[in-house]
## 1
Amino acid sequence: MKLHGYFRSAAAYRVRIALNLKGLPTDHLPHHLRKGEQCAPAYLAINPQGLVPTLEGDDGAVLTQSLAIIEWLDETHPDPPLLPKDPLRRAKVRAFAMALACDTHPVQNLRVLTRLRQLGVGEDKVTEWAAWANREGLSACEELVAHEAGPFCFGDKPSLADLCLVPQLGNARRFGVDVSAYPRLLKAETAAREMKAFLDAAPDRQPDAE
Amino acid sequence: MKLHGYFRSAAAYRVRIALNLKGLPTDHLPHHLRKGEQCAPAYLAINPQGLVPTLEGDDGAVLTQSLAIIEWLDETHPDPPLLPKDPLRRAKVRAFAMALACDTHPVQNLRVLTRLRQLGVGEDKVTEWAAWANREGLSACEELVAHEAGPFCFGDKPSLADLCLVPQLGNARRFGVDVSAYPRLLKAETAAREMKAFLDAAPDRQPDAE
């Protein structure tokens, strides 16, 4: 398989973790977002949103949107599972993942921060905006797993929730958020950091890392 | 079941359509977002994000995040299905839905527009921001279904994609977007508007409509 990504993209990072957990060898095709490479016509032809990641399957299938890609990976390569079997537990895991993937990450990604700068918003206010989005999302997620024993977000194995959490915590730190306010989330991150699948997916281990 | 929502919330609107398609009777509990009712402690106790919708099941289960709720409804009440059976087709439907639910709607919702106003951004620029987010998302979605015969987004029955599209087109019009640029999406909307499940879920048919 081929994954179109960018070392710093939290959405691509989620898919890298999933591919590593599933043990699927992947060619990584970086697109430098800050140089606008995701807007090249050849890339827009496979991903009209001009966002990363895009996964190309061995049979030529083209998949976009990180959570849709991960659900597909989980359906076609079920071991190890990234969602629980029980419908209500699945809904809890998905809701946690979407609190980050819908309401947090897209509000603080490069596309939105660039638009803020175009409106004349100063750099300190842009960073504060990104920090705000991260705090809002992580605070809610801390509540969502407050009564979960762990050590991962939901149980003793990583799930879609952890795949979204670990990259988001990286973003939060980058924008200056004091993540010590989220001890339960940090407990899950600590468990994840003991796994090679998570470590190998980290931004600083990617070939395009700067 | 009980659905905590708001007549104008596109995310609650998606779930209303799903509940109607599944034929599930539901009590609707409105929370006036512009008056901040979603931030009342009693509501935050069940939805720490302070967003709508939240679904309370008959057994007391509490579900948040519209797409997680709809996936749960589809798993527990599979008829009629809201996702195809084939994994790749499921991924295509989910990717379309997430292009709207992750990258479009959260960038133009009340929370973000309020934050823009707090930064001193003028009302015309706030509306232009919301229109931009809608144009970006809908343009990509038009491409994603360009080769789908329809009449719905993916096939001859409504799917999760249509549940996200119809509310988003309503938002786009509200922000002054010329939706005639998306003929394939309008074809799907026209098909949806022939179904009572979609019509009854519309904002202007809700008890809290203004």
## 2
Amino acid sequence: MVVVLEKNISDKLIENVIKHLEDFGFAVHKSTGVEQIILGAIGVKPDFDTRKVKILDGVAEVYRITEPYKLASRTFQKNDTVIKIKDISIGANEVVMMAGPCSIENEDQIFTIAEIVAKSGAKILRGGAFKPRTSPYAFQGLGEEGLKLIRKAADKYNLLVITEVMESNQIELIQEYTDIFQVGARNMQNFSLLRDLGKITKPIMLKRGLSATVEDWLMSAEYILSSGNREVMLCERGIRTFETSTRNTFDLSAIPVVHKRSHLPVIADPSHATGLRDKVLPMARAAVAAGADGLMVEVHNDPEKALSDGPQALLPDQYLELMNQVKLIAGVIGRTM
Amino acid sequence: MVVVLEKNISDKLIENVIKHLEDFGFAVHKSTGVEQIILGAIGVKPDFDTRKVKILDGVAEVYRITEPYKLASRTFQKNDTVIKIKDISIGANEVVMMAGPCSIENEDQIFTIAEIVAKSGAKILRGGAFKPRTSPYAFQGLGEEGLKLIRKAADKYNLLVITEVMESNQIELIQEYTDIFQVGARNMQNFSLLRDLGKITKPIMLKRGLSATVEDWLMSAEYILSSGNREVMLCERGIRTFETSTRNTFDLSAIPVVHKRSHLPVIADPSHATGLRDKVLPMARAAVAAGADGLMVEVHNDPEKALSDGPQALLPDQYLELMNQVKLIAGVIGRTM
Amino acid sequence: MVVVLEKNISDKLIENVIKHLEDFGFAVHKSTGVEQIILGAIGVKPDFDTRKVKILDGVAEVYRITEPYKLASRTFQKNDTVIKIKDISIGANEVVMMAGPCSIENEDQIFTIAEIVAKSGAKILRGGAFKPRTSPYAFQGLGEEGLKLIRKAADKYNLLVITEVMESNQIELIQEYTDIFQVGARNMQNFSLLRDLGKITKPIMLKRGLSATVEDWLMSAEYILSSGNREVMLCERGIRTFETSTRNTFDLSAIPVVHKRSHLPVIADPSHATGLRDKVLPMARAAVAAGADGLMVEVHNDPEKALSDGPQALLPDQYLELMNQVKLIAGVIGRTM
Amino acid sequence: MVVVLEKNISDKLIENVIKHLEDFGFAVHKSTGVEQIILGAIGVKPDFDTRKVKILDGVAEVYRITEPYKLASRTFQKNDTVIKIKDISIGANEVVMMAGPCSIENEDQIFTIAEIVAKSGAKILRGGAFKPRTSPYAFQGLGEEGLKLIRKAADKYNLLVITEVMESNQIELIQEYTDIFQVGARNMQNFSLLRDLGKITKPIMLKRGLSATVEDWLMSAEYILSSGNREVMLCERGIRTFETSTRNTFDLSAIPVVHKRSHLPVIADPSHATGLRDKVLPMARAAVAAGADGLMVEVHNDPEKALSDGPQALLPDQYLELMNQVKLIAGVIGRTM
């Protein structure tokens, strides 16, 4: 932590600030300039609330100099985390495609879509059995019945399963059926859930919260990592801004930002980020061009009848076109798909 | 729902749109203007995803005309909800003060602060036993021990208790000790938790999420209300914007906005909204002037040593000054405190 | 500027960073801790782009420690700036009321409204002759004819005039008629205009831009101040956020924030901040309670027929009620009105 | 415009609303449903302030159904606008590269950079002679001397020139030297400047304001178009959000959004959007993949010594690598570069 003192501060006040810092457990180094004095406060305290120093008399500014996360940091682990599930590697050279419907609706639907996405090159089947819906009156998912269906469909077409968990009580049940747990944007700071997911041995995909900074997001990953589960991937799915012409604002710059700060893989979800089908193709291309380690897209064989989020689901033909284009883009930057 | 068709649309397309609307269960009324045709689609479907219509060929724009919430709406209930707990009424003429530390730290701390706030006119003692912290390494609260302490302290000074619940598994335990459950900003869209809180009989204070619109917030209230619990109050505690000179941006306009749309009481929390002690007094005054039904403020007898959020806690003298000023402001608008 | 070096950095890299800092003109103080080295770079360079250091090899973080503004800073001038125009003082104990229509429309309108606001205690008459409108097809103001009318109306009712300037070419003309120049939110970073307004001798009210941080805002004030004009007041009128239930989000916390950092007076404009008449009264009360040095509100005798922004204009009776209430609130915090 | 009336509204109130609409000049069509009445108000009034209706008694909601812009709309002009300057076409199949330094600093610098970018495939040389700087103390550009230098350098290497205009008074001077006028983000709603640029015959590149919605942006384009100049291109350069890990948030989804609503070309500026050199390459790729009609990037032969924005300027080698990669990406979507 760096503490900048006010100009013309008295010696007594300087001593008082230093004493406080030492009481907080820091080693203090004083640097006296022509106009201003700077104190370096050193000690490993990633969670120290710097406002405790900011409110002391004579303190002008305070800056934290260490990242608040450790295990998620590129400083802690230089090499990229690669998550291996059966023959799939997430975070390696291959850009991984996750596709499927928003919600699992019935046997026919999930099997039809699983076949479509498997043929066009998806490796992982997505589909919600427990749905976090803004309205209590909206379709909330099939529950365990949905989990059984997606598992069967995935197995038939040699796909992995990713599905969302909404609360700790569901972990045991979902674990029987899924390969990857998804934590939704609205639960990104549900710390109880994160901690419980840190105790299991299956990979977690952590979606970015609507108003989460990159730092908040990595801190939430830290909850899972520090509880013992090191198989965490992140998913950018749009943030909330003043712009309303798309459902959210797809923050693709976050991909290279995360890759610099952290070793964790980053997936991009253009379906939720834009919320409209005709924006999914260009933004999927852009995500891969920006360096995403995987894509998650919604596909539906009959989106007009989908029970949730049909308008953002790709039609089978559109999905095929998307796969063709993003494969070529992956190739441009030396990746496979 | 109002559906605006594109100019110069063919009759066949018009029929197709109308057919879709009828299949979705709407009664359709067609209004033909000089330049454009408008379809009114009427039917009680608060959760209908209007994007399903927006993607149909020939559709220019779609507007939902009914609020997506029912029980939370002023249309549903004209009179203000007044929540009575013992001799306290929240949502009535009196502006209610909730005060206390961020976290319950030990017996001495909570009893000292309880005495201070009770003497200066608080009716409800706040304090966290389970703390949602951004960092997994930060103090996470005393748990049940904390609940016991706050209950004892409140009883001694004739105060009610409000404390935060972070997950459904904690409800049963917390229920033994608290008078009001608080749902934190990060859990505002933890729908599983909201639904479970709808099944109990104690009042809930629902804090606004960092990126929640007023509509999202009322939808989350609807989750609790529609599960059976009608004693819900809202709490404005700042939203996340580009401005960083305060911790959050205190959206005081949301108070009259909510009062117009909903019958639920609105509390304001200037401590979390601003994050710095010297901004709490002016913003507490502003919140009461804007029409808040109550205030929640953090008070600490020794904020420099507080285990969490000390920098935004008022000192006892500051709290007394705040009470004196806000009482006068309440009087200006005909309210008591 | 404080430069935090990466852990385990080589001596050669350290020397390289120090050399760069010295070449940039800074005096460098090195502080070596157990884990990390911190460099203090001292020298008066308020406009130095710290990213120049951030991109050097071995640099982990860079923090600017001096405010980028000088003349606008409370550090530079301890005492509040008080702007005196005739017998009015802005920035002193009295909370000053500026009221009038959005646009000057005709003689009858401006005289009628001038009379209403003068009787109820306004000191300054507002009204636009040159209107910045989002649409090129909207009413753009009466121009010089409008200036003449507002001057006459103000003189008749013993009011001062404030009106908006949109470009440097208008300064000479407007100067003949107005007492205070207003710079609109959309021109807050029209640096050419700001510099030209710094060369005149009449006070300037600088509205905050829709996406301006408090620091940006003070930097724009610095443009005017550094060109020679020290009579600058600021005006908070709402910022743009994701919330759409009000036209903008009224950032009232900015009032105490500015008062701490700067000596310049702060006016609040609840009419533009909320955009709807029924929110103006509560938010005017809140603004005074938060410490505003003045209010600017829109009043219209016949808002349904107003040529611009009628929906946010107060009716004469509402204006009178507002004056009565805000006077009492001003009294609570020891101010007059 | 669609006006939704409140439930259970009296006949008298309905008539009153209809009368107001007719007085405003609209033709009104009434559509009576089971629960609610909807009025369609039809008439060509793109600038009508819908709040005038929203405040009438008995009105629940009001929706504007026509876009507020005309000339900028895809409805008005189906075919893409293609701007031809000498042998360059902007908005056609070719993705056009604009590159150069942030500021023109001296003859050696601009000639060196011009040669670099010309060799690697840029068609247009960028460089500022008049610089809008947040700080009044920062380098403000070389003025006319800079214009002369960039023109000479561009001519030598067969490039076109794009440079920024900050105020109407500069138009005549800049016109002698430039091929394209750039309007900066901070001037996007400087309506006086936009109108004056509408009267000239050279193309304009209009950068998106930091807090401008796509609609605001197109409205500003409408100012130029409606004054007579139809050669307008837009430039996405990042918007301001809560995320601070990049300078701005690059809203790449805006590219397909604008392409659907408008016929105007869209350029993308990854240098200003991200603010850091190592993010420019991935985001340039992403912009082309998202469908940008051109790129604008900052290049500097010696960025450590650049007088402005050096940290976001690419080194010559990085620029060459960028060109190689984006050409391949352009090819994937069937475009040349």
## 3
Amino acid sequence: MALVASWFGRRGPRRETPRLRARGARRAVTRVEFTDLHPDPESYLGRAARIQLGHVETLGSLVSDFDRFDDKERLSTAAGLALSKHQGLVAEIVRRDEDPAESMSAVAEPIDHFRRVTRGATPLETLLSFHVTSGLLDDLFIGLSASLPPDLGPRVGNLLGSDAGTAGVVDILEREISVDRRMGSFLAMWGRRLVGDTLLLAREVVDVTGSSGGESVEPVFTELIAAHTRRMDALGLTA
Amino acid sequence: MALVASWFGRRGPRRETPRLRARGARRAVTRVEFTDLHPDPESYLGRAARIQLGHVETLGSLVSDFDRFDDKERLSTAAGLALSKHQGLVAEIVRRDEDPAESMSAVAEPIDHFRRVTRGATPLETLLSFHVTSGLLDDLFIGLSASLPPDLGPRVGNLLGSDAGTAGVVDILEREISVDRRMGSFLAMWGRRLVGDTLLLAREVVDVTGSSGGESVEPVFTELIAAHTRRMDALGLTA
């Protein structure tokens, strides 16, 4: 946690009544809001932009790993949607007269590390990694957007909450898991590992060091995990 | 040439007066038209769609190979533009009540082979390969579109002639070549190898077997190579 300077104020988070919002064509996940945290906009935007660019990289490299034409199209569509989000976040950084490359470089180390440890040994593992980690991190950043300044937060929340191509990704995962049930239990185990790594990054993002001992963010993390569990359930995987 | 059945009528091609058209933000290339060839629309569309999807794969995998954020954005933007073209071609196949996966599978073998032999040993070689091969093949398919039925050809020609993100790709190539001049002579050699492989695919596409001995298509290929030479010149590379 010492890697990156604190970028949130140290007020305790407060969990709001979860709201349902559409995500992809098929699922509804809980929206978590932490209205008492005050993320620094530049750090928030730099991280969010770097993470979306990471999704572009992951999905872009997966396009050639899957043989079916429709899979290639699903994956590149999802990559294009992540690129749109990245570009929208970069535009917000520019609008604040800050340099996108600097904002992203400042936060690159923990995110690059995260990307390395969550890369799968097979394309299917990497695709599940995208689904699990982007689901958790999108929920986190959408939740945090409610605490950004009012001239920024709603726009960013809408941007991050827009279609991520999840339905197509879920189609591929469901089909592959149905082919080989043993694969399902293996992927379930991989999914648990991914949650651990993602929550480490999420905790670093929320930066509990020096706040009320971490206890106060527990409800927030409980909500993130509950939404994750519903995503895994939808795939027939044990979270 | 025996791999794939003939899909063009056997009339001789005729070279039209070259026209200039904008391509990317910086360059103008010659538009070649072969108005006396009559490509079979399904084969044409299947090939063109598969080739554009190949561009998505190549560019998508390159995104994580380049470290700079702006390069990642340039490459994923170009991938997104190739995806749009692919999707537009798939829509044309569907409009003809044909199955896109079948149309693309029927032509997959020579295109997959072509993609394997034109993949570079380094990201920079692969990027030059995208630039060189997509330039030649786009010119070929745009030229052939003039011979498609009038309810199809102009739409496809416009689609293939739209922005391909070339300016961003050229920016990366120019920068990398300027860093190391010896790299330039190596890439020039690689470029000559790429032209050979691309013209083999182009000849297969035009399918000279059984026509007037191939002689009649020479002016067409001369035009394709002239446009290629201008692209290489723009990079300071000897074609």
## 4
Amino acid sequence: MDPEEFRSLGHRLIDWIADYRLRERDAGVYPTVEPGEVRSRLPAEPPEQPRDLLEAFAELEPLLNAGTLKWQHPRFFGYFPSNADLASVLGDLVSSGTGQLGLNWEASPALTELEEHVLGWMRDLFGLPGEFRGVIQDTASTSTLIALLCAREVASGHAQERGGLQGLQSPLVVYCSEQSHSSVTKAALLAGFGRENVRPVPTDAGFAMDPERLAAAVRADVAAGRTPAAVVASFGTTATLALDPLEAIAAVAAEHGAWLHVDGAMAGAALLLPECRPLAAGIGSADSIVINAHKWIGAVFDCSLFFTRRPEHLVRLMSTSPSYLRTEADHRTTQFRDWGIALGRRFRALKLWFLLNAEGVEGIRARLRRDIANAGWLAERVSAEPGWELVAPAGLQTVVVRHVPAGMGPDDVDAHTLAWARRINRSGKAYLTPTQLHGRWAVRVSVGALPTEREDVEALWRLMREEATVPAAGG
Amino acid sequence: MDPEEFRSLGHRLIDWIADYRLRERDAGVYPTVEPGEVRSRLPAEPPEQPRDLLEAFAELEPLLNAGTLKWQHPRFFGYFPSNADLASVLGDLVSSGTGQLGLNWEASPALTELEEHVLGWMRDLFGLPGEFRGVIQDTASTSTLIALLCAREVASGHAQERGGLQGLQSPLVVYCSEQSHSSVTKAALLAGFGRENVRPVPTDAGFAMDPERLAAAVRADVAAGRTPAAVVASFGTTATLALDPLEAIAAVAAEHGAWLHVDGAMAGAALLLPECRPLAAGIGSADSIVINAHKWIGAVFDCSLFFTRRPEHLVRLMSTSPSYLRTEADHRTTQFRDWGIALGRRFRALKLWFLLNAEGVEGIRARLRRDIANAGWLAERVSAEPGWELVAPAGLQTVVVRHVPAGMGPDDVDAHTLAWARRINRSGKAYLTPTQLHGRWAVRVSVGALPTEREDVEALWRLMREEATVPAAGG
């Protein structure tokens, strides 16, 4: 496409996106298509000849309107906030538009150096010690996989240079909270540890990892001749945003020389607030930390921030130095290709740079404080209301609730919980995500969409009470 | 950022990108900054308060102009073409702008179904058998890692559900061409196989894998009690775009039940041309194939197409089913979270959809044919010119050359090769990538930037002869 054609179409699409975001606030949150419906409305064959793009887009547009969950809707309370702030969308546009591909420093000096620089800003804003170095990955799943690969190589004396995991005598073991995100076990399995060598550690009443149980599990493995390779602590579990006690966990990891990875994908954002940092006491001892800038912080996906105090292990793990990638500047610059799985890299720091400049750090902080206050307000209402219960301590901006009609047994409460959440979701008036805790269903309310104000949380609370008390016709 | 502010700034940035691409054609290809220069011009502290974004961008803009390699320049002949067609940039803008995040079907039905649909189009356009299913990954590095993880689990009877690689008796072995991309060995090491269990198979005079040597290596391993888990064939090596003989390789893999992965990251694009498909005879027997849409085909990075005939193994490898991700539609829809490492996914099919509609399949084919003809023209000139040699058979659009002044010894030729390539690169008039073949330097000319016409290749050839014959003052 010619730059002039791009200019004219680009203006149209910028307007379309602005309108999409404006309309989004009035539209239902929930997609209005059935499985298979989008595909059934797409042409069977690809276009052989160039088409008028506006005409083609006119066919796609209704599918985009009907076939999307409105993640940035003021009444989106599902999963986690994915704010995709429009400033960061502009940063991403500049990234795509300049067509950069970071294979090494020379392939895009600005990409490399802006990433290093902005990750230094973020490290300091999170209050992490200066020895941490940062790099952008796509997701926390990948970041955690990378952490476990580092752990594997450190614990095995870099066995990848020899027989890999296949040559080890003493099996390496990974520990995590039984409430940890599914990506932790997935990463351990992908890294080759095997499910028998993953230890989900029981949690306390507040769903945070019990460090005594961790210590006991580690001792048992050591006694049996196994090697503790990694401990993954959750700073904010998925179900309830429980915060594992990092200081006590770090002590166990340090005693046994295990790599400590902190999964702060969601709640790590709270480190931007100095008043929240005591909740993460001990995080500075971690070997690696992941905090997603593409969740509550507001950058458009994907922008997962991976920090490590021991980049030399990461680089040793990832480094290849084929001739066609070697340039004169290599020894004087950071080669982010050696900081992750992918060789090619997008110019992702631009999303963060645009977001930080548009909102300002204080602007982001004010938004996070607003959300925590709104979640606190909801938690109080739920606690005070007969028939309703807080299933977990309110974790920052996540409130996990259950409605228990008088005299109803646990199986019926499960069905009831799924039914009222489903009614709310299907109504399009708000979106919530059910979750299981010790085998029983509850509903998560994750407060933090950019346009979500107190009145939206009030409206949600009214809706929850209405939908949980109607007769469950066909629920 | 408010949608109205986005609208006004978005128009400005669309214009800026159009101008960047127009200016790019007149600018030098090479970045004009020194290591550290970009960082030294960035503010030490992040902005505490919101800034006027245009004012802030005005500070960034000179760094973007000076600090980028111009990958879309008509005289970019480095690495591989990364065309970032502006139509696909618009698709990526719609992706970011709609803020979609594909965790499962319900989280974005359009994202899921457009990806399935467009990957079906691409499979057919590449002439692959209908049983292949496709998914978009970020890069070929990741795609190859996923393929080797599938291979590992199939060969071990899904050992990840037990003790992983740590519990195996018979070591699993991976085979690849000694000319394969660095990401292949990297993937094997990340997957835990260990370097001792990676076999780089020698190549023939044209740098393609020798299937006899492959068969011999496999036989030796089997005799020694090891298990052949995977064979990675290169359809287009990095150094010379050599095409491994897939049919013969597939026969060896099939005989031993090893997973056959075809790395067609770059040259796979040629499968869009029916006349090139005989070069890939046998590809339909592969278990998995990667072809990057973000290289020669023209989509903006990242858009790596991964196809597999055995998605059930991929899904078994990757699948997790935590409660908070389960929805009613799960059993009726494809869950791409189980087709890769990352849980969250961008709406990447839009880049392809925009590209295909803007260029049309015939438009893309015409461009590829133009590039192959231009590379052929250059190869003929090089062969005919005294002092110049073609180091490898011209592979589609890649020409690998060396200039050998009369009477110069091999070490001096190496220094001379690096020197003239460096002079061209530093001049900004064109960009080339040196590479090592059997320990000796040569220069790759990768033809295929979107605006590259015959006159650009002619200009490059003049420049090569000029720079290779000037006195090497200061090398």
